[in-house]
Design brief:
Layout lengths: L9 H12 L6 E6 L5 H13 L16 H8 L5 E4 L12 H11 L9 E5 L7 H12 L5 E7 L7 H4 L3 E5 L4 H11 L4 H11 L3 H6 L2 H14 L2 H4 L2 H13 L3 H19 L13 H10 L2 H16 L7 H16 L9
Parallel strand pairs: 1-4, 1-5, 2-3, 3-4
Helix pairs in contact: 2-3, 4-5, 7-8, 12-16, 13-14, 13-15, 13-16, 15-16
EC number: 2.7.7.7
Keywords: DNA replication, DNA-directed DNA polymerase, Nucleotidyltransferase, Transferase
Protein name: DNA polymerase III subunit delta'
Length: 342
């Protein structure tokens, strides 16, 4: 059953199934929530459930995943199913007005095979203003046979007029244990790799399935080398490392990893749940840093890294930002002992 492929979101799926079986489908839905947690997959499986040739009488509605309609929807070749998404090759991926106008021309006609025409708009918040206005006109007077499924991880970036014309369904992040179990069951990962991927992705199932555990461990070792006592206590080594990481275009990624490591140190410092640690396989190194670290300074560093990441698209000098974070991290992990006055 295709809905079984979705990890979590049972309540949301049940709501969709109930609406479908009761003939109370809205003309437009907005699936919103964190990135890579199954929103688009749910939308695709819902389209299959509404058009499956073998499960027409299934209660609640579901799909076989094997009939002609299900396979065509999966391949995006079903004549009554359309997918619009940003052009990923653009520096700033966008959905342009021409794509929405082409969609309008398709949606106005009666469906060729199924009972309705379904349009999935992925990353709908990437629509230009013109595209949003064009879609709004269709949502205000939608054809009776149309169903729009908008997917977004940034619903606040959509115009309020569009949000108000969609039934909104919020998707929560699946628990890490469920993601870990899915990795073991569906991807045949060993328990250690499954745990690492689940914690790294923080429950984002799409990210967990696409990440490589071996590469993550390599990155962990690089971060541990960067934050060891010998490196941190040498300003020259820190500045050289920051320059090298910036030149290799890894400064942004390094800041993200540093934030995860700092968070782990704070967790150990305050006696947090060890299952939440990304660097759990290096618990002794975490404990050694946590014993002498200044918690308030580490928390301030986390806030500053988050702010830097939010401003990364505004011509922030990431090398200088990384240098600043590393130097302050040294002071937070190895606070200077005041020299007593004579």
């Amino acid at each position: 059953m295709p809905f079984d492929e979705v990890i979590g979101h049972e309540a949301t799926i049940a709501a969709l199934q109930t609406a479908a079986s009761g003939g109370r489908l809205a003309h437009a839905y907005l699936f919103h929530g964190d990135v890579a947690i199954g929103k688009r997959l749910t939308a695709s499986r819902f389209a299959q459930a509404l058009n499956c040739e073998r499960m027409e009488t299934a209660k609640p509605p579901d799909a076989c995943g094997l009939c002609r309609s299900c396979l065509q929807i999966e391949a995006r070749t079903y004549p009554d199913f359309f997918v619009i998404e940003p052009d990923r090759e653009l520096a700033v991926p966008q959905i342009k007005i021409e794509e929405i106008r082409n969609l309008e021309q398709q949606m106005v006609y009666r469906p060729l095979v199924g009972e309705r025409k379904i349009c999935l708009i992925d990353d709908a918040d990437r629509m230009t203003i013109g595209a949003s206005n064009a879609l709004l006109k269709t949502l205000e007077e939608p054809p009776d046979h149309s169903l729009f499924l908008l997917v977004s991880s940034r619903p606040h970036a959509l115009p309020a007029t569009i949000r108000s014309r969609c039934q909104q369904l919020r998707f929560g992040v699946p628990s890490w244990t469920r993601v870990e179990a899915a990795l073991i069951r569906d991807r045949e990962k060993n328990p250690a790799d499954a745990r690492l991927l689940a914690v790294f992705s923080e429950g984002r199932i799409g990210q967990a399935f696409s990440a490589d555990a071996g590469q993550l461990r390599t990155r962990q070792r690089e971060i541990l080398e960067l934050v060891n006592q010998q490196t941190l206590q040498s300003s020259a080594l820190l500045l050289t490392a920051a320059e090298s990481l910036h030149k290799s275009e890894r400064a942004q990624d390094t800041l993200t990893w540093l934030a995860r490591w700092i968070r782990d140190v704070v967790f150990v410092r305050v006696g947090g749940d060890p299952d939440q640690l990304l660097f759990a396989e290096h618990i002794r190194a975490l404990e050694a840093c946590a014993r002498q670290a200044d918690t308030d300074s580490l928390l301030q560093l986390l806030q500053d890294i988050e702010q830097t990441e939010q401003q990364s698209g505004r011509h922030v000098n990431l090398q200088i930002a990384l240098e600043n974070i590393l130097l302050r991290l040294r002071d937070a992990i190895f606070p200077q002992t005041p020299v007593p006055s004579s």
